[in-house]
Design a protein that fits this description.
By secondary structure, the chain is α+β, with helices and mostly antiparallel strands. The chain contains twelve helices and 17 strands. Helices cover about 35% and strands about 25% of the residues. Helix 10 packs across helix 12. It binds (2S)-amino(hydroxy)ethanoic acid (HGY) and manganese (II) ion (3 copies). One manganese (II) ion (MN) binds next to loops. Its cofactor is Mn(2+).
C-alpha cells in the first residue's frame, strides 16, 4: 500500500484553529455541548467534508466523518470537548491527527479512513459519555437523565445540537478497528526524551456521585455534640478511605475527590449538604471492586453514626482494557520505523474512548509526550516535532 504522507503544516494549522474555540490563556474551556464545543464540532464537520468525508452527528453529539466506501475501514479519532480547565491538545490532538491522516490517505490513493470526535469524553455528565452511548455501554435514554454539577440534564444539553444530529447511530460494523492518538498526559515519555508511546492497556475507572445530607444550623449556637455537619462527614469519610485503602492499593492505584459542593457554603452556617464525586482507577478489576466495597461501607457507616442521609448516584464503571495485539504490533513497527529507539510500550493511567470502543472492535492507542507531564491544565503542551511524528506513526500504522 502506498505510504501516507501527512502535511505537517496542515496538521499544526488545524490544531491551532481548533485551539481557538474556547481559548483561555494557553488552554481551552470547551465543555461538552457548550457554545465553543458546538462551534468547534461544526468547524470539524466542515473540514471533514473538505476531506471528502461525510460528516454525521449522532444523537449523542458524537461527530463521525465517514468515507464514501461500503468496505469496512479503519476508524481513528478521539474527543474535542475539554475539561472545565483543559489543555489545548487533550483529545483534540487525536481528532486532528486522524483527520490529517484521512485526507493525506485520500490524496495518495491510500486506504479509506473514518474520523470521529466523541462527545463528553471529559465527563461533564460522568465520563466518556459519548463513546459509552455509541458502544452500547450507556443507553441514550438513561444518559438523558444524568445531570451535570449545575443540575442540567444530558437531554437538555444535547438539545442545543438537535438541528445537527441525525436520529440514528453509525453502525460499528462499518469499521474494521479503531486507533486513537493522544497526548500521554504524564511524564514518562518526556522524562525519557522519547517520542512515542504504544499503549498495551488502559486502567479501569469507577466513580460515584455522593451526597451527605445533615442539618443546616447556626455555627455559634449549635453544640458540636448535636451537629449533623455534612462537611465533617465528608472529611471523616476521606480520612477513613485513605486509611482503609492502605492494605488494598499499589503505587499505581489512584483515587480522587475532585469535585465538592457544600450547601449553603457559608462560614457561619453548619453545612447541611455535601455533594462530591469519588473516583478511583487501577489496572485490576478485583482491586476496583474491593475499593468500591470500602467506599460504600465507609459512607454508610459514617452517615449512620453521624445522623447523615446518604445518596449515591451516577455510577461510572469502565473496566481495565487490553489493547488489540494486531493493531498494537502495527503501531510498534510504525514507531520503530519513524522514531527508532525513541518509543516504548506503556500502560495508560488516563482513560480514553478507546477503552469503550475496544468492547466492539480491535482498538489501539499511541501517545506523544506531554511537556513536564502536565495535563488537565491550561499549560498542557507538546513539542511540534512530537505532534508531527505521532501523526506520521499513525499514518504508517494505518497504511500498513
Ligand atoms: O480523566 C481522564 O483520564 C481523561 O483525560 N478524561
Ligand atoms: Mn482525553
Ligand atoms: Mn482529559
Ligand atoms: Mn521532544
Amino acid at each position: 500500500m502506498p505510504p501516507i504522507n501527512i502535511n505537517p503544516d496542515r496538521l499544526l494549522g488545524d490544531l491551532q484553529k481548533l485551539r481557538s474555540f474556547g481559548a483561555r490563556q494557553s488552554g481551552v474551556v470547551r465543555p461538552a455541548f457548550s457554545e465553543a464545543d458546538i462551534a468547534a464540532r461544526e468547524w470539524l464537520a466542515g473540514r471533514m467534508r473538505e476531506a471528502g468525508l461525510e460528516p454525521v452527528f449522532d444523537p449523542a453529539g458524537n461527530l463521525f466523518g465517514v468515507p464514501q466506501t461500503d468496505r469496512p475501514c479503519i476508524l481513528s479519532g478521539s474527543h474535542s470537548d475539554s475539561q472545565p480547565e483543559g489543555g489545548w491538545l487533550d483529545g483534540a490532538y487525536g481528532v486532528i491527527a486522524a483527520l490529517e491522516v484521512a485526507r493525506a490517505s485520500a490524496e495518495t490513493g491510500g486506504p479509506p479512513v473514518a474520523v470521529v470526535s466523541f462527545q463528553d469524553e471529559e465527563g461533564r455528565f460522568g465520563a466518556l459519555t459519548g463513546s459509552r452511548i455509541w458502544t452500547g455501554a450507556l443507553p441514550l435514554d438513561e444518559a438523558d437523565g444524568i445531570t451535570d454539577l449545575e443540575g442540567r440534564s444530558f437531554a437538555e444539553a444535547r438539545a442545543a445540537m438537535a438541528g445537527l444530529c441525525v436520529a440514528g447511530f453509525i453502525q460499528p460494523g462499518r469499521f474494521s478497528g479503531f486507533i486513537e492518538a493522544h497526548i500521554e498526559q504524564g511524564p514518562v515519555l518526556d522524562d525519557a526524551a522519547e517520542s512515542i508511546g504504544v499503549v498495551n492497556a488502559i486502567v479501569g475507572i469507577r466513580s460515584l456521585q455522593m451526597r451527605f445530607t445533615g442539618h443546616q444550623n447556626h455555627a455559634g449556637t449549635t453544640p458540636m455534640a448535636v451537629r449533623r455537619d455534612a462537611f465533617q462527614g465528608l472529611a471523616a469519610f476521606t480520612g477513613a478511605i485513605n486509611r482503609d485503602f492502605a492494605d488494598v492499593v499499589t503505587p499505581a492505584t489512584v483515587w480522587t475527590i475532585g469535585h465538592v459542593a457544600l450547601q449553603p457554603n457559608a462560614s457561619s452556617i453548619v453545612p447541611g449538604q455535601a455533594d462530591f464525586t469519588v473516583q478511583w482507577r487501577d489496572g485490576s478489576a478485583d482491586r476496583l471492586d474491593h475499593m468500591e466495597a470500602i467506599i460504600r461501607e465507609t459512607a454508610m457507616r459514617l452517615c449512620d453514626d453521624r445522623g447523615l442521609q446518604l445518596d449515591i448516584s451516577n455510577p461510572v464503571a469502565v473496566p481495565p482494557t487490553e489493547m488489540d495485539a494486531t493493531l498494537r504490533a502495527r503501531l510498534e513497527r510504525a514507531a520503530e520505523t519513524t522514531a527508532p529507539g525513541a518509543w516504548r510500550i506503556m500502560p495508560s493511567g488516563a482513560l480514553h474512548d478507546a477503552a469503550n470502543v475496544a468492547r466492539l472492535m480491535p482498538a489501539a492507542m499511541l501517545f506523544v509526550p506531554s511537556i513536564g507531564g502536565v495535563s488537565h491544565n491550561f499549560s498542557e503542551d507538546t513539542h511540534k516535532h512530537d505532534l508531527v511524528r505521532g501523526a506520521e506513526v499513525l499514518a504508517r500504522a494505518i497504511a500498513e
